[in-house]
Amino acid sequence: MIRHYPWQYNDMKQVGIDYFNINEVEVYDKQMAKLRDVKQETKNIIKLLGIGCDDLVAEFGTGTGEFCLEVAKHCKQITGIDVSNRMLEYANEKIKLRGINNVDFVHGSFLTYRHSGTPVDFVITQLALHHLPDFWKQIALNRIYAILKEGGSLYLKDTVYSFDTNKYEHFFEQWISKTKSLAGEELSQDVTTAVREEFSTCDWIMEGLIKRAGFTIQHAEYEQGFLAQYVCKKTGGSIEPPSIIS
Ligand SMILES: C[S@@+](CC[C@H](N)C(=O)[O-])C[C@H]1O[C@@H](n2cnc3c(N)ncnc32)[C@H](O)[C@@H]1O
Question: N or C: which end of the chain has fewer CB within 10 A?
Answer without folding.
Answer: C
